[in-house]
Structures
1.
Amino acid sequence: MELECERECSRGEDYRLIKLTIIDYTRKKEQAVVVECRGHDAARFHSIDHAHGWEQDVVGLVEHKDGKKKLLVCFVCETLKAEKAAEDHIRQFMPKLAGLDAVVNIGPMSIAGLEFGAEEPDVRQDV
């Protein structure tokens, strides 16, 4: 979900904030984080420290809450699949999403500070 800005952003037209929901299907838990997104189809996500100038609910999502570990996210697209290659990839790995005319971003993602269960190591995986 893309979040709207109250004022004109000065970070370039490819800059936006998005609410990224990380889901652990095994434990049936999820955690949302607002990340900076740059690039259009070949996206890059990075954690942000503040969201000054955005709507109050967006600022509330970004601000660090006392006692809660800050969630850090980093993703850089290394491979972009579009059209038939993207559709084949989606049919293989996410068949319920087939037919949506989407692109697929593949690259390393690191997530630190995720607390779904007991003490778990930070996660780094190619997605």
2.
Amino acid sequence: MDPHSLRASSNKTTRSKRAACLSCRRSKIRCIRGSDDSICEKCHQSNTECVVPEDYHVGRQKGIKNKRTGLDKALHQIEQALKKSKATGSPLANPSGRSIPELENLLSEAQSQLSPTTPNKATTEQNGAPGSTASTQHINQDDNLALDDAENPLQLLARASEARLPQSSRQKAHLSVSPQSYSSTNGHSTSESDEANVSWFFVPVRAHLDVGRDLDPIDLGLATLEEAETLFRYFYQKLSHTRWGLDPTIHTLDFVRSQSAFLFTSILAGSALFIPSEAALSKRLSNHRDLLAQRVILGRNRSVEIVLAFMLNVPWMSPGERSSDDETCSYMAMALKVAIDLSLNKTVVPVLPMDYCYSTRLSKSDCIDSRKALVMDGFNNVDPDSVWGRRLLRRRERAWISLFVLERGVCLARGRSFTVPVNPLIKNCEMWHVSDIRDTQDGSIASMAVLRRDLDSLFRSVRSSCDNYKDTDIGSEIARSIKRTIEAFYDRWYAKWAFAIGEGERRTLPPYVEILVIHTRLSTYSGVINHPTAPVEVKHFFRAAGLSASLNVMRAAIQGETRLKSMPNNTAIMISFAACFALGLSGAMSGNNSNLAPSVRNLIEEVADVLERIGATPSHRNGASVLYGRYLRGLVRRVPERSITAPEMNFNRMATVDSHHEMHGAGLYPPGANTIRARTTTPGLDDAGNLCWQFSAMSNNQIDDAIDQADTAWDTAITAVSWDNITGLDWFDWGNGDFGF
């Protein structure tokens, strides 16, 4: 080989192994310097001092066998320190202040999360499937390639930062650090305090409780302990059936008071609102509750109980100056924000190895370790496998399901887009109420979650049937098919839930649940009644079935008045919508139905009386249902007694009546579910001497029969009150087919 090339190769090798000077490192460029030169080319050109650190070692540091970074590096350092301490028998020199047991617990917890767990042999043999072992190995191999929190970059940073913080610093990590502490004059942070401040910035979310003597209503003298105990008992006896999410076994007075002053005050204020003799106490507590809500928002407090507090205040919120001035949507948004911050949308999975294979069916981003969930809520010393630990974890799931049900109802009633996502817990909540630690209201929560979750698929199925309709198809056959689809949907629901949550020997649904279910059925028809591709026969079926459902909503409200004294605002909106819906449809009918429209008018006046009585009882309640009742009463007065006159129908419309008449026997309940089907109804007389049905005294099936017996030829062209005029409350968006609830 040429000596020159050998010398060049030698210089290149030597130059490549020489350490770069500080100037070149700062500029991140190659440091070019000959073997005998004391200054590099860059420093020579800039006429600056060329400083090369003496402690620089080429390649890996001495003793390092692999390259680890981030959380993996921290775990390796802990493991090596523990081995060294046990080998020498000397106490561990731990600058962070952790003891050896604490480090061992931290190491085992982290390893259980990072390393794949192999199911035991007994479990594998019990399955009996030859491919189960290979399948498990495949799952573990895939899990070994997974990265925790890969879908959440901020959470990944938080987990890495938490491993670097001492235990004392972790407990103080929720405290805010001033922005000035993160800044540095030269843009580089070198001190340990600055590094700790940056690590604190990325710590995971923890519960931040809103408690203290300056927040507690008893410590402030707003109520006595005896009054608080009385109000708590009243809430669970009279109000909890309309506001789901609380478990009386967990949410006792002492527990709620120690977790959230906002929830504690909200329960007291909600109960005092319905006790006639507690007007002054109700006013004091309501004012304090509103103040706490603002402090929670500004102070960024977070806990499961704060989520429940925001939801608990939604049903009985006082109306503002206008229909859209209340805080309902703001409270729902805050409840969702805090819930997602605390990972309530994630499925709690056990830490036990035998349950690991089941948990791997879910994405890691959809799961949270049970111990981690308790630590996040502030229960560090609670065993997740104990009864108390399981109840605390179930309270997280109950809060999320309740939030889903409430948010769906609020959005459907107010014409807003859904925001609470359908997570794996909602997708698989059919058997959630079956548990040894269940609450009495868990069945009602799960039943409504299933109904509102599956309503979207029913909408898609009905609209798809209409969209696929062709001119060569028979409209009556399409109508029968859609009727069977809707009937099968609700029959399946009743077959499961009427028995699970029904009351008494006849397994009747609770009044609040009954109204929700009937109105959900009404929303099915109102959501597709104006679908552009629906045949005429299908639209006739939608109108007749929708009229029957709307009358049943009002009938259920009147008959269940004694058990609906705590009627939520959303229920009042549902009833008002049903009244407007029935008034519009009954005025669009022509034929021998002169007794139908007056009967509907009388029913609306009765339900208006109910709404006004409920909203004004007791006198200090100031319920929003009073306004809805007055609105319905004024609406009925503006509608003429005979809103239409029946014109002479042409041949084509007469041809559709017979085929449509077969569509009417659409009972809301399966046979024997709630009432006995009876075809004999006794009409009364109205003030004008016309025959008039007393719908409020009928059963749901009797109302269906009354609609069947009427000559229901529909006239959409001539009606004195247009649909836009009927739905005068624009902010409800009642005419929107996508939000028909």
3.
Amino acid sequence: MHRSSTVVRLGGVLSLLVGLSSVHAARLPDTPHFPAAPPQVLDSFAPNERPCGVNTLGEAVSLIYEQNMPDQAQALAHQCLREARSQGHAFKSLIAVRIQALLAMRFRDLDTLHQAGQALVQQRTMPEYVPDGHMCLAFTCLASGDTQCARNHLTLARNQFTKLQIPQALDQLAPLEEALQSMEAASESAR
């Protein structure tokens, strides 16, 4: 019985993390300065595709959560990856990873969420995305029952969101903290 209540609680936490991702996605910083791509690179993309950029993540959030069009969001992620590879823009790869994380949260794909979290933590292009990675990893650790791992990543996410002065992200970490405390208490009482 305790296991099912934990699963329900984690489902609720996942829903709230989705909210965090969409709030944080809306707060995407300005694109770092990258040299302009040569025109022939931009011309190689389909004429209907808008280039992957700062607004792409917000568009993906809308496609996933408001319009229920995850296939279109996945297409945006693939487009960002293609552009990142052809133009050598690490920023565009990060947008693709963020979209993958959003899709993983939406469909409760813990393996993909874990991979996205690791990619966000390990990247060095956008330090603002590192705490998002720790948040993803905290959730996957919690879902697998590893409270120590979850506590470590939650603490890192909180400290980094504080350092970056993103108060709405701190507010959104509260349900994850609550679920973790509940699991820690249950684990402690089982001893």
